[in-house]
Amino acid sequence: MNLKSSVDLNASPAQSPAVFSLEGKTALITGGGAGIGLEIARCMVASGAHVILTGRTEARLKEAVKDLGPLAAYRVNDVTRLETLEDLVNDLETEFGPLDILVNNAGINMKKPALEVSDDDFSHIIDTNLNAVFALTRTCAKRMVARGSGSIIMISSMAAYYGIDRVVAYAASKSGVEGMVKVLASDLSRYNVRVNAVAPGFIETNMMKTAFGSDPDRMNKAMARTPMGKFGKPEDVGWAAVFLASEAAAYITGVSLRVDGGNAIGF
Ligand code: NDP
After folding, report:
1. Which among 161, 170, 191, 251 is annotated as catalytic?
2. Is the distance from the beta carbon of residue 80 to the nearest atom of ligand 1 less than 6 Å?
3. Burial 231-266 (b: 16+ CB within 10 A, else e)
4. Which of 94, 232, 244, 246 could form a disulfide with 203, with the two C-beta atoms 3.0–4.6 Å apart?
5. 37 in ligand 1 pocket by Cβ < 6 Å?
6. Whole-number mean pLDDT of the chain?
7. For the chain, which domains are there?
8. pLDDT digits (tens, 9 = 90+) for 209-257
């Protein structure tokens, strides 16, 4: 599995129409130091945005920012420490200006038969993938509402679309995210704040490596129902996030955009 990005930040500027540009926008991307979050950041930088990455591991964030160049910055932050989120956003807006885009990407998974999942196991996943997503979204959205503009992007999963065995807490968290997208989109539309999700299929990251590493049957099953016959790359999700954050998606809110090679509709 090749985890290397194919997005070249040194390529000559894209000649795409201005509606796809994120020039002048600032994005906060949780879990931006690795995997899908890092490639969302890379695609957003390539589209002209400033990005601020968060995560728990400073060395990884430092490396990511070095790689992404001058449009990127980082803050060490654990999204589950809900009491820190207000100060985080306040500090970032003081230093970098308004956060126009929030990408709730940080997430964790756990593979265990449902009946072996303890209450602590379940809460651990929900704390990161759902409670933190709501708390940070509420904090950022209040400011977006006051400014009359903003775009919020959640990262969902195929686990919210169909019954994948042994990921009960993860599926519950991502199903919660899908519900949250619809309600927030309804509540915030009148303030010109859009709320959407990207629902990745099986994307080549460390999370997928862990899920499939010792389970070739699971990997083969996922591939067999993916009509495109290949797993996704993190930047496939990155470009979808750029689109949803851009003016090209100005009339799109409340959707969950599958980036899955057809996995959800595969037979
Ligand atoms: P990775 O495990 O590769 O990366 C997860 C990122 O989240 C890391 O940067 C990690 O950094 C960060 N993170 C985890 N916990 C926290 C926390 N408490 N606070 C802040 N940051 C945190 O996963 P992926 O890139 O694969 O996943 C990214 C998102 O995409 C997740 O929401 C996942 O559920 C979703 N997804 C992934 C799919 C896939 O096939 N890969 C499929 C469908 C959805 P650190 O550990 O340093 O904090």
Report:
1. 170
2. yes
3. bbbbbbbbbbbbbbbbebbeeebbbbbbbbbebbeb
4. 232
5. yes
6. 96
7. 21-262 (3.40.50.720)
8. 999 988 999 999 999 999 999 999 999 999 999 999 999 999 999 999 9
